[in-house]
Design a protein that fits this description.
Length: about 100
């Protein structure tokens, strides 16, 4: 299990993985996603480099509510193959803290 704490800053996006997901077998990932900043909403996405650069979504893995709401996504790694994972701010303009746990 790994936990990532990050901040979506003025760009409105945060790159979680530095390279596309590479998988040869089926495995299930459990992803818990939480926005820690009031007045903002965040989305967790898997997409292409071009999706991330444009700040648009690919496959939306999770959405966020306000602080205290943690959302669970269960996904097969084959759905993520060849994609990068990133966070986009969907509502608000403030820097947005988040917590992402992958098991």
């Amino acid at each position: 299990m790994i936990t990532i704490n990050g901040t979506v800053g003025s760009s409105g996006k945060y790159l979680v993985t530095g390279m596309p997901v590479d998988t040869k077998t089926h495995a299930v990932l459990k992803i818990a996603f939480e926005n820690l900043t009031s007045g903002t909403n965040l989305g967790l996405f898997a997409g292409t480099d071009a999706d991330f650069a444009a700040g648009s979504g690919g496959l939306q893995l999770s959405d966020s509510g306000g602080p205290g709401f943690q959302f669970l996504t269960i996904v097969d790694t084959h759905k993520l193959a060849g994609k990068i994972i990133y966070v986009l701010r969907e509502v608000g303009t403030a820097d947005s803290l988040f917590k992402l746990t992958v098991d």
